[in-house]
Amino acid sequence: MTRHATDLERALALGVERAGELLTAGEAVVLRGMVGLTDEAARWWARLVDRVHEAYPIDGIPGEVVAELEAVELVDRLVPWSVRAARSTRARLAYGCRQQGLPVGGSRVALLERLAGRRGWDARTWLRIRHRGLVHRLRQWAALDAWPDPRRAVVARLGHLVWPAYSLTSGPGLWPRRASMLAWEGLLSGAVSVEALRAGTTVAPGRLDLTRHVVGALFDAARALERSHRTAEARALYLALRPWTADVLVRIARTHEREGEAAAALDLLLADRPDPLAEPSASLEVAIAGRRLARGLRRGWAPDPPLLPAFTRNLPLELGDPVGARPGWRVGDRHLLVEPAVVAVLALAGRRAIHAEGSAWSTLFALLFAEAYFLPVPGALPVPHLDGPLDLGTPAFAARRTAVIGEVLAGVRAGEAGSRVAAADTRWRGMCLRGAAWGLFEPADLVAFAAGLPPAGLAAVLEALLRYGWKATRGLPDLVVLPGLETRLSGAFPSSLPGGVVLAEVKGPGDTLRPDQRIWADRLVRAGIRTEWWTVARR
């Protein structure tokens, strides 16, 4: 390392520390050349290797830097003339045509056609940047991320983002041998397959794990086959995606149905029907498909426990000018989308509301559990510049921190949520904290939201997020009406709005409730949280 190590050099060192034994002898030689550069050459190399393209003219690069980079074979001058042409501006191409005695008029495409196959039309020296793949690989290892973002280290160093301070915890090793690593890299380049999924090639620590990436790619491939009416091939792919999620199970049944095997489709759904208490969203999706099949076959489908509905309210508004591609609603002299329009109407009535959806809840979650994020759990914090542990959003997060999680939930149930959120906001606001949307919510609003919720209800929502992960926030209501005086909304029916926290899912004309929104309404109502469905209609 040079005395003034670049962000790139720090990442390379961490990558080598994590899995340097997987490098070949040749790669190790190249790496020694990288880390042995002088300060100025190291800074130029860090800039060059992050450029989008692999070839550039050397304009502006000091000659001694070019010579040093060439000496350790990090750059060379083997840039084909076709590549130079593709990377040149129209003015440069016109200059090249003039040098060759060719016409200089016309479009850039015409100039490229004239210079095709010609050499010597550009006197500039070009450099090809080498070994970018090796740099990217080491960055992946350093960050334990299949898609690392080098900008994180830059913005942290410049102070634009504040990252939490924590002690690194030892993590699992990467791959037992180089062949396993190369097979994993093949998945990133698009060589996904059922065999790779079955062989465990996708599995790796942290965000290097490609299981979801590969499953998603195979699901998309199966859907494409299904749309092309190649149902048997599509089903073979779906069947390989175990454990089946609800959407996969429904698609397998659908392929049977399209082949005239409705009874087989229904039997499949009955056999693998999700538990409605453990997986309510999945159960509802399967139940919709199952009921339809059962009606056609004149067979039975035992209903899931009924979902409790939210309180319904109608709110007429004046239609305004469109906002982008969506209808606009007029409030005073403003033309707003439906959710901001309702917030504005509430403000005129003396009640403050925030456009929450899942962000307000995830921010409360982050504030209440921030201390648990950075506990020294083995393998959870193996790299710097993390906004939360690697297991956040999975059931393992709570299972590995039972004491702290239990203490927070006990405090919430005891009515301490408001004071805890206030203290945590003072400590953590502005820091990179997964789930926290600082720019969307004021501290006082978050405190009022947490303090205004029934303690047992807030604890129930937090437990759902702990159990099901971040995907569980999908379907939470649009708006949070903060505590205030009981209010009357002019023209609404019913018009009386209670004074406590009210969660409102807002629907404009033609909008319908999604299954996950119905499920969350049921959960919230059962938890004692005032939840409403508001239908906005033209006045």
Descriptive terms for the model:
539 residues, alpha+beta, Serine Threonine Protein Phosphatase 5, Tetratricopeptide repeat, 3 domains, 12 strands, globular
Largest sheet report: 7 strands, mixed
* Helix share, percent: 40-55%
Any idea what the shape is? globular
Number of helices: 24
Strand content: 5-15%
Mean pLDDT, to the nearest integer, reads 91
Order of strands side by side in the largest beta sheet? 6-5-4-12-11-8-7
Residue ranges: pLDDT <50 for 5 or more in a row? none
C-alpha end-to-end distance: 70 Å
Task: Supply Rg.
Answer: 29 Å
Overall structural domain count: 3
Q: Class by helix and strand content?
A: alpha+beta
Q: Tally of extended strands?
A: 12
Describe, in short, the structure shown.
With 539 residues, the chain is of the alpha+beta class. It has helices at residues 7-19, 25-35, 39-49, 63-71, 81-86, 90-99, 108-115, 132-143, 151-158, 178-188, 194-199, 211-227, 231-239, 246-258, 262-271, 280-297, 338-348, 357-373, 395-399, 402-413, 417-428, 443-452, 455-468, 515-526, and strands at 55-57, 75-76, 126-129, 311-319, 329-331, 334-336, 353-355, 479-481, 487-488, 496-497, 502-507, 531-538. The protein folds into three domains: 7-158, no CATH class; 178-297, Serine Threonine Protein Phosphatase 5, Tetratricopeptide repeat; 311-538, no CATH class.
